[in-house]
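Quick one, T. Sequence first:
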Amino acid sequence: MPRNYTGEYKNYQGTPAQRKRNDARKTARRKMVAAGAVKKGDKKDVHHKNGNPKDNSKKNLSVTNKRTNRSFPRTTRAGKK
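Structure tokens:
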């Protein structure tokens, strides 16, 4: 069965709440680009230390590599050992 990308966008990515969170993440990235901490194509992510993408204060942002930032904890509860 082929994946329904249009349906997924309508049901999740296109929702107002998700769009707001995405805008907050983009704002954080723009702040770090302006500060010179990251640049386009550097394969780095802007990490929110407290996990709240709405808190874009300087003390809450840090730069990490994509693999670390997008990874999930490898625990037995997460399905990995």
